[in-house]
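Q: My labmate handed me this sequence with no annotations at all. I'd like to see what the chain might look like in three dimensions before we decide whether it's worth expressing. Could you predict it?
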Amino acid sequence: MTPKAGAMLEPPKSLEDVRLDIATRLNRAVKDRRSPMHTPAVATADADIRIMVLRAYDRETQSLRFHTDIRAPKSRVIGDGAPVGVLFYDKGAKIQIRCRGEGRIEQDSEIADAAWASSTNFARRCYLGDGPGAPSEAATSGLPPELEGVQPEDDQILPARENFAVLLVKVEQFDWLFLAHTGHMRAQFQGPLDGATARWVAP
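A: Here is what I predict for the chain of 203 residues:
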């Protein structure tokens, strides 16, 4: 099985093939903006769902990293630890990966600092505006008018750091589904992907 985004796959021959497919797709999703799995759906315990950009996948710690605004409702819902679900889907390959795990929000940590340092000022400017969900009398980006379509200077971006945070999801279960007209295939991995309790299940 060759896990290429947008390509049809041959059915996997083993659970080890599925493990490799999951890890390969998530690694590609971080690096390739054109990957269908670059922007998964993230669900929180309050039954709210949103599309987020996958920023990092660590196979060793079995964690996913996303960027968020500390003022966003999901930051309060997740806090120091809460259930989070993440749904990835590659329409071309007909592969769905569902992740269940525990999320936590970090604002003042080495991970958050490193994530902030690796961002561009154009991306950081999102955290300068009004908080997510702030009411407005007209359609708005929430950004200060002088920064609409403009990359801020370093001194302008400094206040944005206090609104920036990361969402870390420690995955506790992977659920992999391959859709095929000849018959769907599904596998589950409980615990860390490497060494996890793995099994085939009915789709």
